[in-house]
Specification:
With 490 residues, this protein is mainly alpha-helical. It has helices at residues 3-32, 79-91, 97-107, 109-124, 127-133, 135-149, 152-163, 169-173, 178-197, 200-220, 233-243, 258-262, 265-295, 300-330, 336-359, 365-378, 386-393, 398-409, 412-424, 430-454, 472-482, and strands spanning 36-39, 42-47, 56-57, 60-66. Strands 1-2-4-3 form a four-stranded antiparallel beta sheet, with no helix packed on it.
Length: 490
């Protein structure tokens, strides 16, 4: 098996694990809290939407559950406290976005990505105890976990730039959407774990899986083809010839052209576009379990299943779509920039329209599930859109750029729950959730249109460090060559 194929699998499961830590609280919290009032020795849970097995009492759907199910492990947290917990992971997550890219450039992705997931796995074991102590303690643990895990995403772009030929990048970046499988597995697995063993098991199993991945990562992954002890000469030569001089190697790390980065139009457009798409995705991923359970009235197993399955479809869509995009680029039927723009139509604009469609599904759980599936699936095109474009425009500084973008884009992970908490505080109604979906949909659509009009995948001049030992004409030829599509066959 080729080593970059091994890298694809390890990257895929690495992002799956990373998202498992992000998302496990979203479904666990459904069973951690008491959304109920007590009447005559039974607990009465209020839903706006009528379930098939329930009847109307005073125009409100009531589900009666024995008080025996309400034990000391249930917490009376209001919507504000719940969303503080949901958003805590991202409160400090943004801090490590830029350092993650810089550290990967200096110390290598193997170290940064590995430590990010490994330490987050260890902290997962502390979640149950902190929740039982105080909800603020849980917020702190989740915030620290998010801080440590924050370096993972930007660090991977550095390894992608070092290992993956340009015409294979869309397909390789689909490995980043192992995050979707991680989310799906988390929701589905955790629904059954909670039903069988209680919500605490979610965090113990997540931590164990994270440590298992960490061991495999340390043993199998290396930062560059040149450092890999068992790579074939044929594969190493192929990779190095395809990448060519777009990646500069020096005894010391390349100096970062901060002024050019921060004033780059291409970078700013990527930042806005990724932020919009992530806002929609994070809103759906974080809030779908609560919406299905407390508004539509689905049980915990159904909630886990229907919240998780869309993310499997997202990854499948990403892989298929990225394969088509790579073929279009390799065959020169379409420019890299136009491929990225088509992808953005799917991952931002169509996603926004489907999110808005949730607003009009009402109490029809079938339509709601279809809209959620569709909105989540089309977001998978991000692997061929703005996310991949970061490596296109400046492979030498891809990790740093993604760090800058991630600092802003992942802030939606804690801003969105705050807004949702404000809109739904003591108002778990369809009309209030409609406001949530319309806002998220509008953000996705507007940011997608910005990339359509202003986005580019042309390599930027400041990507090439003006080393005095390199002739200026050679530098210009490097930029010109790297802006063309590669069509090297193995």
């Amino acid at each position: 098996m080729e080593k970059r194929t091994v890298l694809w699998y390890m990257t895929f499961w690495g992002f799956a694990i990373n998202y498992m830590f992000r998302m496990n609280i979203n479904i666990a919290i459904v069973s951690m809290i008491k959304h109920s009032i007590s009447q005559n020795n039974v607990t009465v849970v209020q839903y706006e939407c009528l379930r098939h097995t329930e009847s109307l009492t005073s125009n409100i759907t009531l589900a009666q559950i024995s008080l025996a199910d309400q034990n000391e492990n249930k917490f009376e947290w209001n919507e504000y406290q719940q969303n503080s917990i949901l958003g805590a992971f991202f409160a400090l997550h943004v801090i490590m976005q830029l350092p993650g890219g810089i550290l990967a450039q200096r110390y290598g992705t193997k170290t940064v990505f590995g430590i990010s997931n490994g330490v987050a796995a260890i902290l997962s074991f502390a979640v149950p105890a902190s929740a039982k102590f105080n909800y603020k303690a849980l917020v702190v643990v989740r915030a620290v976990q998010g801080l440590i895990a924050g370096g993972a995403w930007p660090s991977m772009h550095t390894m992608t730039a070092n290992w993956i030929p340009p015409h294979e990048r869309s397909r390789f970046v689909s490995a980043y959407l192992g995050s979707s499988i991680g989310t799906a597995v988390t929701y589905i697995m955790c629904g059954y774990l909670i039903a069988s063993f209680g919500w605490e098991s979610v965090f113990y199993v997540s931590g164990g899986l994270g440590l298992l991945w960490f061991i495999c990562w340390i043993l199998l992954v290396y930062d560059t083809p040149a450092k890999h002890p068992t790579i074939s000469i044929r594969e190493r030569t192929y990779i190095e010839n395809c990448i060519g001089k777009t990646i500069q190697t020096r005894s010391k790390p390349l100096p970062i052209p901060w002024k050019s980065l921060l004033l780059s139009k291409a970078l700013m457009v990527n930042l806005v576009t990724q932020t919009g798409g992530i806002w929609g995705l994070f809103t759906l991923a974080a809030q779908a379990p609560s919406y299905f359970n407390f508004v539509l009235g689905l049980n915990i197993k159904q909630t886990g299943l229907w919240s998780g399955m869309p993310h499997i479809i997202r990854w499948a869509f990403s892989f298929g779509f990225s394969t088509i995009c790579d073929r279009l680029v390799k065959s020169k039927r379409m420019s890299m920039t136009n491929v990225r723009k088509i992808a953005t139509v799917f991952c931002n604009i169509l996603q926004g329209l489907f999110i808005m469609g949730l607003c009009y599904s009402g109490c029809n759980s079938v339509v709601a599930v279809i809209m959620l599936f569709s909105a989540t699936a089309v977001n998978g095109a991000i692997s061929s859109g703005a996310l991949a474009s970061v490596v296109d425009i400046a492979p030498n500084y891809a990790g740093v750029i993604q760090g800058i973008i991630g600092t802003v884009s992942t802030s939606s992970g804690f801003i969105s729950p705050i807004i949702v908490g404000y809109l739904t505080l003591n108002q778990q109604t369809l009309s209030q959730w409609c406001k949530v979906f319309n806002l998220s949909g509008a953000i996705c659509i507007c940011t997608g249109l910005i990339y359509i009009f202003f986005g580019t995948s042309d390599i930027q001049k400041w990507n090439t460090y003006n080393d005095p030992v390199v002739d200026e004409k050679e530098l210009k030829s490097i930029v010109k060559k790297s802006n063309s599509s590669y069509s090297v066959d193995t």
